[in-house]
Amino acid sequence: MPGVHLDGMVAKIYKQIRELLSRTSPQKEAWRTVKLARHPKRPQTLDYIEKLFPRFNELKGDRRYGEDPAIVGGFAEFEHRTIMAIGHQKGKDTKDKIFRNFGMPNPEGYRKAVRLMRVAERYGLPIVTFIDTPGAYPGLEAEERGQGEAIAYCLGTMASLNVPTVAVLIGEGGSGGALALGLADRVLMLRNAFYSVISPEGCAAILWKDAKQATLAAEALKLTSEDLLRFRVIDEIIDEPRGGAHKHLDQVVRNLSGALSRHLQELEVLSTAELKKQRFAKYENMGREYINGLEES
Amino acid sequence: MEQRITVEITKRDKPELKKEEKQDRAPSGVSSNAISCTKCGTPIDLKDLEKNWFCCPQCDFHMPLSARKRIELLVDPGSFSEFGEKWTSTDPLNFFDLKSYQDRINDIRAETGVKEAMICGRATISDHPVVLCFMDFAFMGGSMGCVVGEKFVRAVDIAIEERRPLIVFTTSGGARMQEGILSLMQMAKTTCAVQRLETEKIPYISVLANPTTGGVLASFALQADVILAEPEALICFTGPRVIKQTIGKELPEGFGKAEFCLSHGQLDMIVSRKELRKVLTLYIDLLEGAVQCEYEEPEPAFRGLPKRGGKIIRGIREIKKVAFDAWRSLGRHGS
């Protein structure tokens, strides 16, 4: 075809692609993370526990009201030491998801977690938590049984523990319901997990008056692992294979295992007093650098 | 006078008040110096309202109250000295929705005169030195951001250093979205501070006002030794609208109100505003008395306790030991 300058056209198209990418990429990036973190095939707490900790045995019930399958936990073994593993479990197929209430705990879930943490503390066992929840369950009965108190109690327990704790954000970190298991000495985060004060949809509904603006909200909330590392809310990012953790679980487990081992070793040499001192300093310093006028008083 | 009250009462009543105010300025409009009760709609004269602790004289509805007004009503006159009044957020997320976070802050400050969602300071209540934190719903729904968290922690520091009880008034929609994950972390931050209070045996009382929800409720508000609430205050982790949406059912009458929480074992007491000073004084008195008992000291502080083998029991360890021995020896005599 004479007269058609293909070279010029190709260059033009490439330029357009580059422009489009540069214009939309940051927003898409945050939203892409949210979607990956919620991916139906994304590995869940029990998948990691199975791969990381041999001899895991689940313990059940809060000894007060009931058993909440949205949070699982029990003794396990990690590198020749006994540990306590606790985490949100969203469920795999429809039946399992309904059984586990999509990983949204009721108060008894948090109270079970507290019970397990106290048992671990009594035996001097380190605690590893896995965070993956849309949030605490917003239900009538949950409020009747004190959802707010259950979370406050779980937070208070994690703050006061005399044993080392490591939290791992593996998927969705939805607000207070996630943080309840996250007040740990070290917080690790998979690269494509997210952690936020409110879901992007909820934020968009309130501030944009339109839940469809969730993409914008996701960007504004700065909820990716890179953002959180920058704010020093997390201590380390665990790499995932291209396309997300579900593409190659073993690879993620290898990365996580190494980091977990390193952090536990660092924490296990500390005295109880030093451990708690560092924990309080870590959390009580959070946000301090983003306040003006602090040094004047 | 009217001008001041306009500033004090929170957003919800504002449009109404402004109208009244304008009429007030007209030379003839003296009689219109009133607002209507949020609950029963009865028109109340502002002076009567103030005399009645900002409660409706008809139905006793507790009208929203600013932090400044609460201070005025509660502490010994002139005893309040504030700290942290100049602390402001640097907008760490550079947050922007339909309006930038910085603009929102500036507008609310200009509109209400309130600088942050929490005001803290030292004061005395019935001559007892205390540290106080008052949340203010007029400032971004009393939401907890970095400044609120920091003020709470500083209040705890002072309470420990100066051995003063800590009293916190909460009214909050929860964490502050515009500070993202850092606002969520303020739940962890305040929790750690409360743990230090507990270790140091400093009395801590929280008073939950309408509404106390979300991250503030699920952290320091519910971690106090004694939890009081104002009548009919909404107290829940998730708001009724969201719960209704989730479960697709109507909620029972009075759901999430202080009375509901009291009957579900989540509070100690509902206290009317008029009685609050008296009740707080009582608890401070009782808890301070308790703190003075040093259980670990070997001092014979418990002269009234039973003696065993002619020996005075000293300290909690010894009490425990004696008790354990007694239990262990049960039934041995028969064998």
Automatic annotation (TrEMBL), chain A:
Domain of life: Bacteria
Keywords associated with the record: ATP-binding, Cytoplasm, Fatty acid biosynthesis, Fatty acid metabolism, Lipid biosynthesis, Lipid metabolism, Nucleotide-binding, Transferase
Summary of the function given for this chain in its UniProt record: Component of the acetyl coenzyme A carboxylase (ACC) complex. First, biotin carboxylase catalyzes the carboxylation of biotin on its carrier protein (BCCP) and then the CO(2) group is transferred by the carboxyltransferase to acetyl-CoA to form malonyl-CoA.
Cell compartment(s), UniProt: Cytoplasm
Chief place of localization: cytoplasm
Taxonomic source organism: Candidatus Hakubella thermalkaliphila
Annotated ranges, domain CoA carboxyltransferase C-terminal: 12-266
Gene Ontology molecular function: acetyl-CoA carboxylase activity; ATP binding; carboxyl- or carbamoyltransferase activity
Name of the featured protein: Acetyl-coenzyme A carboxylase carboxyl transferase subunit alpha
Pfam family name, one: ACCA
Family: Belongs to the AccA family.
Source lineage: Bacteria, Bacillati, Actinomycetota, Actinomycetota incertae sedis, Candidatus Hakubellales
The enzyme's E.C. designation: 2.1.3.15
HAMAP family according to UniProt: AcetylCoA_CT_alpha
UniProtKB/TrEMBL annotation, chain B:
ZnF endpoints (C4-type): 37-59
Pathway note: Lipid metabolism; malonyl-CoA biosynthesis; malonyl-CoA from acetyl-CoA: step 1/1
Region (Disordered): 1-31
Location(s), subcellular: Cytoplasm
GO molecular function: acetyl-CoA carboxylase activity; ATP binding; carboxyl- or carbamoyltransferase activity; zinc ion binding
Any single Gene Ontology cellular-component annotation: acetyl-CoA carboxylase complex
Catalytic activity: N(6)-carboxybiotinyl-L-lysyl-[protein] + acetyl-CoA = N(6)-biotinyl-L-lysyl-[protein] + malonyl-CoA
Record-linked Gene3D superfamilies: 2-enoyl-CoA Hydratase, Chain A, domain 1
Major location category of this protein: cytoplasm
UniProt domain CoA carboxyltransferase N-terminal: residue ranges: 33-302
Keyword tags: ATP-binding, Cytoplasm, Fatty acid biosynthesis, Fatty acid metabolism, Lipid biosynthesis, Lipid metabolism, Metal-binding, Nucleotide-binding, Transferase, Zinc, Zinc-finger
Presence of keyword Transferase: yes
InterPro entries registered for this protein in UniProt: AcCoA_carboxyl_beta, Acetyl_CoA_COase_Trfase_b_su, ClpP/crotonase-like_dom_sf, COA_CT_N, Znf-ACC
The protein's Enzyme Commission number: 2.1.3.15
Cofactor(s) the protein requires to work: Zn(2+)
Cofactor binding, note field: Binds 1 zinc ion per subunit.
Top-level division of the source organism's lineage: Bacteria
Listed GO biological process terms: fatty acid biosynthetic process; malonyl-CoA biosynthetic process
Compositionally skewed regions (Basic and acidic residues) per UniProt: 1-25
Assembly, per entry: Acetyl-CoA carboxylase is a heterohexamer composed of biotin carboxyl carrier protein (AccB), biotin carboxylase (AccC) and two subunits each of ACCase subunit alpha (AccA) and ACCase subunit beta (AccD).
Family assignment from sequence similarity: Belongs to the AccD/PCCB family.
Function: Component of the acetyl coenzyme A carboxylase (ACC) complex. Biotin carboxylase (BC) catalyzes the carboxylation of biotin on its carrier protein (BCCP) and then the CO(2) group is transferred by the transcarboxylase to acetyl-CoA to form malonyl-CoA.
NCBIfam families in alphabetical order: accD
Protein name, UniProt field: Acetyl-coenzyme A carboxylase carboxyl transferase subunit beta
Organism expressing this protein natively: Candidatus Hakubella thermalkaliphila
Native organism taxonomy: Bacteria, Bacillati, Actinomycetota, Actinomycetota incertae sedis, Candidatus Hakubellales
Gene symbol of the encoding locus: accD
